Amino acid sequence: MKNPNNESDSNCTLTLSMKSLLRHWYRKRFVHRQHTIELMNATSGPMDTKALGIVALLDVDSVMMAGLMDAEEWQFVQTCHAYLDGYSDGKSRRKV
User: How far apart are CA 10 and CA 84, in angstroms?
Assistant: First the structure.
């Protein structure tokens, strides 16, 4: 079955609202170089907090992250990070 949004399979699990939040917090954290702790005060709900947390995990070693999350959570975070890699043209700060 063809993806109706013409997105790659790795991105199809992300809603448009989550993609928007991920981009928003990525720009604040890495483009505007604001600290995550400062940004936490600007979140307005659970989805904001979740998206900011995922962006903040770009600073964490992926091997360490895999050991701290269950498989479903880890897959979702990987999907979000892959989306952000495409968004930032590969300039994310994630350590591989």
Answer: 12
User: How many Å apart are CA 37 and CA 81, to the nearest integer?
Assistant: 20
Assess if residue 64 is contained within a domain. yes
Domain range holding 53? 16-87
Cα 78 to Cα 84: distance, rounded to the nearest angstrom = 10
Report which DSSP code applies to 28.
I
At 26 the three-state DSSP class reads helix
Alpha carbon distance 6, 94 (integer Å): 26
**What is the Cα–Cα distance from 43 to 40, expressed in whole angstroms?**
6
- pLDDT of 10 over the 70 cut: no
Please state the pTM of the whole predicted model.
0.73
Say which residue, 2 or 18, is predicted with more confidence. Answer: 18
